[in-house]
Amino acid sequence: MHIQQQSASPSADRRLSVLARHLETSSSVAAKQWIMAAPTSSGTQSVFAHIVRAPEDPILGVTVAYNKDTSPVKLNLGVGAYRTEEGKPLVLNVVRKAEQQLVNDRSRVKEYLSITGLADFNKLSAKLILGADSPAIQENRVTTVQCLSGTGSLRVGAEFLARHYHQRTIYIPQPTWGNHPKIFTLAGLSVKSYRYYDPATRGLHFQGLLEDLGSAPSGAIVLLHACAHNPTGVDPTLDQWEQIRRLMRSKGLLPFFDSAYQGFASGSLDTDAQSVRMFVADGGEVLVAQSYAKNMGLYGERVGALSIVCRNADVASRVESQLKLVIRPMYSNPPIHGASIVATILKDRNLYHEWTLELKAMADRIIRMRQQLFDALRARGTPGDWSHIIKQIGMFTFTGLNKEQVAFMTKEYHIYMTSDGRISMAGLSSRTVPHLADAIHAAVTGARRGVTGY
Ligand code: KET
Prior knowledge:
Layout: H1 10-37, H2 60-68, E1 75-76, H3 93-104, H4 119-130, H5 135-138, E2 142-148, H6 149-164, E3 169-174, H7 180-187, E4 190-195, E5 197-198, E6 203-204, H8 206-214, E7 221-225, H9 238-251, E8 254-259, H10 274-281, E9 286-291, E10 303-309, H11 313-331, H12 337-347, H13 349-380, H14 388-391, E11 396-398, H15 403-413, E12 415-416, E13 422-424, H16 433-445
Parallel strand pairs: 1-12, 3-4, 3-7, 7-8, 8-9
Antiparallel strand pairs: 2-10, 5-6, 9-10, 11-13
Helix pairs in contact: 3-12, 3-13, 4-12, 6-7, 6-11, 8-9, 9-10, 12-13, 13-16, 15-16
This protein binds ligand KET.
Ligand KET is lined by residues 59, 79-80, 149-151, 177, 179, 225, 230, 258, 260, 291, 293, 299, 304.
């Protein structure tokens, strides 16, 4: 501190310098006390000291562990992400073309999108899942909002329901994608489950499903996987879907479809949308969350859509006005790039056709991997019936391997997968099938090494 000394007398000078010293010391003491009192800068004690370490995510954490492994034979079959025969991530050719078009178009800008996202993208997404000739679209009773991939679409739908729907209970299949219960609980819904998979038959527990939905309270929300159920790879037949639809409509249960794999199950976009279209065709209300992560390989672009099919156009427009109130304080408005890629592909006849071919090629490669793994286990005489590998649908095989067997395969063979025994078939290639088959064989027959038998 510097006090300008203007006084002429020595006594006045002394007083001033005493005051100056006093001010200096008291202010530095005060400053010191203030510093001591500020817990963030004390150096030893953090205000976050009580925070406990959270476990890694059961699916994405598998990739974290895989990345740390230095073995040259390591194999990541955890997350559902498509890989080529060379084990590399794939950017679809049609996506490259669309991106090139976007970059070349100098009229494109980076302004904010509206709260509901890119209008073209929303229209085309609704058409993709509901069908080009869907009466619901023609009657303007579908509202579609662009969201952050499948997860974001589910979350926005759930937040909307928790705020505005009279029934706060959602039934999810047992088992289901691990993020479902978290998304719905955090949105404010109460989560219950319905029987879905029967480990004894490795098929659908259809009776259990009908019983559980039959005893759900009227109006409850029901989460349905549109196709390629994750993690089981078991889907209802069309006839079973029809029975589920009738039961749900008779009880006024509200269907909320999660469509993360359209085109990945059968290789056909229309075939894989049949379950959703059946529910829309009866004129009733439906929610659908779509993801372009898998079917366009746009994982990191986070592009998806939530559609709510309503009874009439007036309700749909009021629903949309409320969806905007959900979205605006959450992330304001969605990102532009991924949605522009999707819209470019969906609105161009040639690009769309090319996409369907590339999608079919991905689906076919996964089906080939199923056959190769099945054959490899048979060739090794691995005990057990492995026919479910070729029967199951979509990206995953729900192997039936238990936690210990999975841990064994990771430790001894550097094969990474979720602890429930789910394998991402899309991560496999002809080159790595023998390694996986060896690992499964050893895990199943490896009682000597302390591994539980299959
Ligand atoms: N629904 C299902 C059924 C699903 O399997 C996933 C992703 C999503 C939604 C969300 O995907 P998004 O990337 O938000 O569009 N499943 C894979 C990846 C993950 O867990 O995030 C998986 O199961 O490996």
